[in-house]
TrEMBL record:
<dbReference type="InterPro" id="IPR000683">
    <property type="entry name" value="Gfo/Idh/MocA-like_OxRdtase_N"/>
</dbReference>
<protein>
    <submittedName>
        <fullName>Gfo/Idh/MocA family oxidoreductase</fullName>
    </submittedName>
</protein>
<keyword id="KW-0520">NAD</keyword>
<feature type="domain" description="Gfo/Idh/MocA-like oxidoreductase N-terminal">
    <location>
        <begin position="1"/>
        <end position="115"/>
    </location>
</feature>
<feature type="domain" description="GFO/IDH/MocA-like oxidoreductase">
    <location>
        <begin position="136"/>
        <end position="292"/>
    </location>
</feature>
<dbReference type="InterPro" id="IPR050463">
    <property type="entry name" value="Gfo/Idh/MocA_oxidrdct_glycsds"/>
</dbReference>
<keyword id="KW-0560">Oxidoreductase</keyword>
<dbReference type="InterPro" id="IPR055170">
    <property type="entry name" value="GFO_IDH_MocA-like_dom"/>
</dbReference>
<dbReference type="Pfam" id="PF01408">
    <property type="entry name" value="GFO_IDH_MocA"/>
</dbReference>
<dbReference type="Pfam" id="PF22725">
    <property type="entry name" value="GFO_IDH_MocA_C3"/>
</dbReference>
Length: 390
């Protein structure tokens, strides 16, 4: 694995936990953790249970006791590491967004496609697909329970940047992260919406805003944010604080419950300034037969409105039944799951796909489509919200 902070920690937990709760064809071994800071990477390796450390990710590529590389470092590193790993015959799990530009994502996708022909696979970490309630939503849409889809309403709301003195971190530096709220959290909404509807976004009109243009360099880091000094030096925020856009989806692609001619229309919002909303990754779908609504802050439930039973109103499905996706391997009914479980399910699906010799999903090609939407949103916002084809 490359990287050991937030994503490195949750991925480590997943690699360790997956074989204990699911029957896997291979037993993952946490062979080596890479990070540039020798002391920091050693502390992380001891804490998360990695057997060895490297201070240069290239060593992971050279080592023949490593079969898969999990990339949990910032976006500016993804393309180089993923391409080198795939060319060296190592499978890759890469955090999202896939890259910092469409050009990089295209190169990664081309290398990934030829590697897959040699049985070397790659996957992008759009983990929310593995949240049981969203996986159930996908199943219900595929089963035609919503009929033809009309509306997609997607929000990803956090508030950890609301404090204007929260310190500058790599997530606020475009050269490292590619974009701000748009790529860090909006990308999840885009992937989830395209996956559940089975339909790609074909065009967008967008607005982006950076509310706080400069932030303290250094300070007390807490979680993703924290508090910097008020009088010390400040540096520029080079990414968006918020992004909103409207979107059109393409028509029928596959599966039941699809739209026939024109696809649904969508409204998206991604922000880290929605005070009080901590990790509200929300998705609402309206179709001709019913509606579904999900909010990650209530992640063990899914609201379903079945128009055939109008006076029943929205029904809250508690997604803790053994018949619900992934749930049967965990706790008795009613004893819900948390944020980390999606990452564990991601490992399970990845290892099973590799063992079966099948392309895992989401592929780099799926992630490239998300990258194209991100680029179109930025282009539209720069052009005073002019409609931008994807
Ligand atoms: C990782 O998948 C990620 O997008 C983080 O980068 C965000 O900061 C987090 O809030 C949601 O998950």
């Amino acid at each position: 694995m490359v990287g050991y902070s937030f994503m490195g920690a949750v991925h480590s937990h997943a690699w360790r936990t997956a074989p204990r709760f699911f029957d896997l064809p291979f037993a993952p071994e946490l062979t080596a953790l890479a990070g540039r800071n020798a002391a920091g990477v050693q502390v992380a390796a001891d804490k998360f249970g990695w057997d060895s450390v490297e201070t240069d990710w290239r060593r992971l590529i050279e080592r023949d006791d490593i079969d898969l590389i999990d990339i949990c470092s910032p976006g500016d590193t993804h393309a180089e590491i993923a391409i080198a790993a795939l060319e060296a015959g190592k499978h890759v799990l890469c955090e999202k967004p896939l890259a910092n530009s469409v050009a990089e994502a295209e190169k990664m996708t081309a290398v990934a496609s030829s590697a897959a022909e040699r049985g070397v696979y790659s996957m992008c970490g759009f983990t929310y697909r593995r949240t049981p309630a969203l996986a159930l939503a996908k199943r219900m849409v595929d089963d035609g329970r919503l009929g033809e889809l009309r509306h997609v309403r997607a929000q990803y709301l956090q508030d950890w940047l609301s404090d204007a003195d929260a310190p500058l971190t790599w997530r606020l530096d475009k050269s490292k992260s590619g974009s701000g709220s748009l790529g860090d959290i909006g990308a999840h909404s885009i992937d989830a919406a395209q996956w559940i509807t089975g339909s790609s976004i074909t065009g967008v009109s967008a607005l982006m805003e950076t509310f706080v243009k400069e932030r303290p360099i250094g300070g007390d880091f807490i979680g993703l944010g924290g508090h910097g000094g008020t009088d010390g030096p400040r540096g520029p925020v080079t990414v968006d604080d918020a992004a909103i856009f409207t979107a059109r989806f393409g028509g029928k692609t596959s599966g039941a419950g699809r739209t026939s001619d024109g696809g649904p229309i969508g409204v998206f919002e991604a922000t880290r300034f929605a005070l009080g909303r901590k990790n509200a990754m929300r998705l609402e779908l309206n179709g001709t037969l019913g509606s579904l609504a999900f909010d990650f802050e209530d992640m063990n439930s899914l609201s379903f409105y079945d128009a055939a039973h109008e006076d029943a109103g929205f029904r809250r499905i508690i997604v803790t039944e053994p018949s619900h996706p992934y749930v049967g391997n965990w706790w008795p009914t009613g004893h819900g799951l948390g944020y980390e479980h999606g990452f564990t399910h991601q490992v399970v699906d990845l290892v099973n796909a590799i063992s079966a010799g099948e392309q895992p999903a989401p592929s780099f090609s799926d992630a490239l489509q998300v990258q194209k939407v991100l680029a179109a949103v930025e282009a539209s916002a720069e052009a005073e919200s002019r409609w931008q084809k994807v």
